[in-house]
Amino acid sequence: MSSELKKNLAALARKADESGRYRYTDFLSLAERQELYACEKELSYAGLALWGGHENAERVVARFGTSEREEPFPIVCLKVAPLQQKFANELTHRDFLGSVLSLGLERSVIGDIVVSDNTGYMFCLARMADYIRENLRRVAATSVSVEVCEGEISAEQKTEEATLFVHSLRADCFVAAAYKLSRREAEAAFAAGLVFVDGRAAEASDALKEGAVVSVHGKGKVRFLREEGKSRKDRICITAAYYR
Description:
The chain has helices at about 5-20, 30-40, 40-45, 95-100, 125-135, 170-180, 185-190; strands at about 25-30, 50, 60-65, 75-80, 110-115, 120-125, 140, 140-150, 160-165, 195, 200, 215, 220-230, 235-244. By secondary structure, the chain is an alpha+beta fold. Strand 10 (about 195) and strand 11 (about 200) form a beta hairpin. Helix 6 packs across helix 7. The protein has three domains: about 5-65, Ribosomal Protein S8, Chain: A, domain 1 (2-Layer Sandwich), CATH 3.30.1370; about 75-150, Alpha-Beta Plaits; about 160-244, Structural Genomics Hypothetical 15.5 Kd Protein In mrcA-pckA Intergenic Region, Chain A (Roll), CATH 3.10.290.
């Protein structure tokens, strides 16, 4: 574990416990979440919750503290949309992220960016929301408007369903089938710590359950929707949903 991150997490937990007030991290990447999980037990005395602004968020904020008064996480969702959709370029996650980082922001203040219908739903720390609204004018070569989304975001990340055949419901079998990897390539991905199930680093032998969201660093996310039965060759037929 990064000694600096562990030190910062311990300090936040201690301050939350001593003050009786919630304390928050910036957005944590998947790798940083694993470092948090590694010391979760020793920090649990202070109370710990994670939230990224929407269900199944990859990048999350950690909150330390307990209180009778519930307090929302300091996360704001910004809707970044082309001023004229019919003349806009096709915008990607990379376009939205690159444009907001070009404003001089650290990656840690930006959470997930969900792209739907050429519009980006960008989760950011509340303290940066006004700055982004005032300064983000273009994404790639497209002029955009930026406004705060109130309540739940109306956009859902698009998925595309596919049928997969696996020998078992082990995580390595699923990864090999879902990402079209050889057995050796799948094993290498697990060994390198690149595979996550529901936000936690996974082992090759882990058993997957329906609803699990699997991600391989650099290769995207896939949800195991349901088991459909057996094929004629006695392989398990499953339906998976690819996040686009």
